[in-house]
Every structure is written in C-alpha cells, then in structure tokens.
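Homework help board

Subject: predicted structure for assignment chain

Our instructor gave us this sequence and asked us to write out the predicted structure in token form, then describe one feature. I got the tokens but I'm not sure how to describe them. Can anyone check?
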Amino acid sequence: MGETGRNLLLDDEKIVEMGVSIFDVTDTPVQKIPYTSSHYVISMCHSGCLEAEYDSVNVQFHPHDLAIVYPMHTLVVHRVSSDYHATLIAVSSELYTKFGKLFFSDKRSVYERIPHFHLVDNQYDDMMAFSEAIRRVIRLGIKGREDILRGCLYLLSQLIDFFHDTTLATTGDATKSLSNRFYNAIIENCHLHRDVCYYARLFHLSSKHFSKVIQQQTGYNAGHWIRHFVVLRAKQMLTYEYDAPIQDIADRLGFPDQATFCRYFKRGTGMSPTQFRNMI
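My token output:
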C-alpha cells in the first residue's frame, strides 16, 4: 500500500506483505554500510538530490530522474538534501521471482550498468499518472488484484523502456555503446539468428573481439544475451498467448522443430515450456 515514510529500508515487511508497494519518501538516511535489497525497485525523484554509490560507482539522483534497481545490487547513501522527495515502487522478491522475470525489462543489462536516466516533463507527468494508477489498484484490495498488477507492471516496464530509448535518441548517446546496438539487433533478428558470428559480422568484428567487448560493457558474453532474449521472448509468448501451441511458438522463434525449442528453453530455465506454462 502506498505510504509516506522516512526510510524504505525499514519497510521490508510491508513490501513482502503487499507484494507491490508504493512509498513517498521524504528523507533517506545516510547509510555508512552497504545495503543490498532483495526487491525490484523503480524510483522517481521529485525534488532535492541524493548522492550514493551503486555497486561501488558514484551516482547522483536529481529531480525527474528515474532509476531502476534490480535485486541484490548494493547501495551506499552518502548525502541527501533536506528537500529530497521521491516515489518508489517496490516489488517483493517473492512476486518478482513469481512473474517479474517474465516481462520486467529485457534491457536489464543496460539498467544494471547505468540504473537511472532523466525524464523530460511530459514523460515525468506520464510516470506520475501511471504510478498513481498502480497506487489505486493496490488500495482496492479486490479479488484478482495480482493479475491486474501483473498487467500494470508489464505496461510500466514497456513505458520505461520507451522513455529510455527516446532519451538516448534525443541526446545522441544511443549509438555510442556497442551493447545497446547489439540489443536492438537481437530484437530484430533473434527469430532468425542465434549465433554470435552473425551479430559479430553485423558490426564488422571478429566473433572473439565482439564477445570480448560485449563482456566488458555488460559483464556477460554475447552468447549469454542472445540466449537470454530468446528465452525471455519465449516466456512472454507462453504466458500471454496461453492457448498458442508450443509448436507454433517454436516456429515463430525460428526453431526447426518443437524438440529443439524445448531443449533450448530447458537449458535456459531448467524446465520444459509445458512445465513453465503450468507454473503460471
């Protein structure tokens, strides 16, 4: 349930109880020791400034900045201005594990390296409106609320991705990172190509050098991200196209047959597509 508080770090029980919680944070205490959250958190700054270390990297959070913090990352807060005010949407680790990985942004590698970006005025207004809608859903306490929140969080993740891409395109930063261009190439071609050599050739690099650069920029090699996105796309289809035959999903993802798709999916998730679908 949405509430105003001084310190999100003291409200773990509330987050676990509610599954999805919204906090209006008017002050955050300086932490002398690293804090690691098990929750997925979207934070939007309204006023003031927060200075911190995120995974040992210095960051500053200013008005209209939006941050996406994934579970198990480390934060040390060094300074908070007296007029600091932010809204935080927190998804519990249990709920995140249950369905968050199905659709929370497939840009995870990008956000984990640079967790925040700036919203222009209309984007900020849209995020405020959307967060208020989620707050109202949480307050309703109606039957089927979790299913409604599932849809809300999916739409929210898509909205954030759109704003992020728009911001990069406007500032001209979108072409500076090979990993970002690689991400876009996977989106366009993963149903046709799943080999690293294909993507290396797109950028006129050897496979070895290409994978090395991607590893340096993201922490994982190129093959990891190809598999990650294909499995993510498969999860989305299995979840939101529940009546679609698995053979049809395999065909649309470019697998030669259902058996090959099932083996690929099981290597990435530890379960078959049918087992995954039965867990939803």
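Reply (TA_rk): Your tokens look well-formed. For the description, you could write something like this. Residues 178-279 form a domain with the Arc Repressor Mutant, subunit A fold (CATH 1.10.10.60). That's the kind of observation they're looking for.
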